[in-house]
User: Fold these one by one.
Assistant:
Number 1:
Amino acid sequence: MPTIHNQIELMEQISRIGLLPLLDSGIAGYSAEAMADADCRYTLLPDGGWDWPLWKWKGPVLADGSCVYGKFFAGKAGFVSREWWPDFCNHRRHTHPAPAEGSVEEAILLTLAEQCSLITRELRAACGFTGRGMRSRFDAYVTRLEMGCRIVTADFVYPVDKHNREYGWGWSLLTTPEQLMGREACRCAHTPQESYSILCDHLRRLLPSASEQQIARLLK
């Protein structure tokens, strides 16, 4: 896999391979983190701060509109190119059916549909998850919806200090893929089974040393 040195090369890599986990995927060398040059990885600074160019590229990469980002790979974040999104979404929505009527997941999606997009903490509050210990419960619901390709991250929002400088890890600005890209982008001409076979064949070619179990886990 080519080494990634900058934001442009990250975008090119996502476009080239189609599906790219951000961090460790369980398959050696297969993540943006593993492909990044050493200078682009997480570094602790002497003043106690940190620098992580790869992390900071996520927002600008999404702004380009050529890929989708969310917790897609075993509950971990990653990118899917617009080219591969229809088959990926088609397969995942088949294996992760639409939320049941009256469920928490349905309430989350209805809230997003009404508001178009919300950062995670705003969505959590809008859905009434404000009590002690509610954050982790709510995050688990959102992760399941992301794994089912029903919620994606549209951008990242950062707080600013008194000097108007951004800081921290940033908050995910959540939305639905239909709102982000339009309904047509989520339609696929293949059956879910065909989409799964197409995705498996693609990953086998891309990752010849990966086992069938590893590939299945990525797509589960």
Number 2:
Amino acid sequence: MTTPPPPFFARAGTWLHGHLPTRETIAANRWLAPFAPHLLNNGLWRLNRRSVPRGVALGLFAGLAVPFAHTIIAALLAIPLRANVLIAAGTTVVSNPITWIVIFPLERSIGRFLIGLNHINPAVHVAAQAGSSVHGWLSVVLKTSGEIALGSVVLAIAAGVVGYVLVSLIWRFRMARKWRGRHDRGPIMAGGAGPKNG
């Protein structure tokens, strides 16, 4: 008897299933309609060792680096990059209300570290210089936004590269296992020749 998943995971699975794009939803999207002839090209929907890793990398990058319309941008970029459209659009769900709790603080930490502010609280630093003026708080907002923007791009690039490498390795591993399985079953006679009758 199968144990049902916990309510949280059941809700998360239902949410993801409802938000994963399909060929029909992508073709029906009004922003993507002008590009439908290209997006519906069968070559962009095949699963192969090149299109799938590209789709994963593209989806991760678009989901983390682009602040809105992740699916649309990932689908459009899949055309020139020859990535699998469904994989690219579907992988953008890495950015969702559930993961934002972790993504935003991580992006800000990365951005703050890269611009040399990892040991300085920008709110305290700016408030000490400008007091509680509107200009001071605007500077805080701009600094924080800059940290998040920089961190999001760096995190998106890193996630895209890691995703591409991991999926490529998994794909090669599966192909190697398949070839070994065929070899273990014995060689196939060339030309379909069978034993000769006496």
Number 3:
Amino acid sequence: MKKYIFLLIPIIIFAAPQIPTVNLSLSAPTSPKQLVTTLNVVVVLTLLALAPSIILVMTSFVRLLVVFGFLRQALGMPQSPPTTLLVSLSLVITFFIMQPYAQKSYNNAIKPYMQEKIGYEEAFNRGIKPFKLFMLKNTREKDLALFFRIRHLPNPNTVDDVPLNILVPAFMISELKTAFEIGFLIFLPFLIIDIVVSAILMSLGMMMLPPVMISLPFKILIFILVDGWNLIIMNVVNSFK
């Protein structure tokens, strides 16, 4: 009989003397405290909507995705692996790299806040600090100074003196430059293969045959023999300070 108990759920709900209601009506705030509470809710909802984009620009995702894009172009296969697969792989490795920072943020900020030991402002400052340290370690001083000069701000002395609206764009520029440097190193061996194949075809008088058709199988074969995915992921992950 126990497996038929779920059939009584609709009867219990409709037979309940009081059914809780949800009020979704909007009304003007009647006090400053109520206005502040409403604004806090709006800010939280906005941050939740922008959370995926914020996470992507403050983590290792940009470098990983750009490097994988360079690898796909260097192999001569613009459509393989598909973009969805490269994005998913970048996300998985990003979670792997950022896990220690996220764990530290949880222990120092979210956990005490849920236990009502600290306020939300202090929780935010504590929670964002590990990610700021990560971004500062991987941001070039030249890129950071660029945005400080644009805003005419004094040089920072501590991590807390670096605002996020300056650190995030400086971090993204540094990530793009580093990703292009890694992409250039990835292109070199495949470029040599293309040059060798083109020279051989010209020496044989087969100038009408596209070199890419001949070099592509050799690129894939060499990439498999050297365990390319292992080498690239290991070096990209180790490139983060």
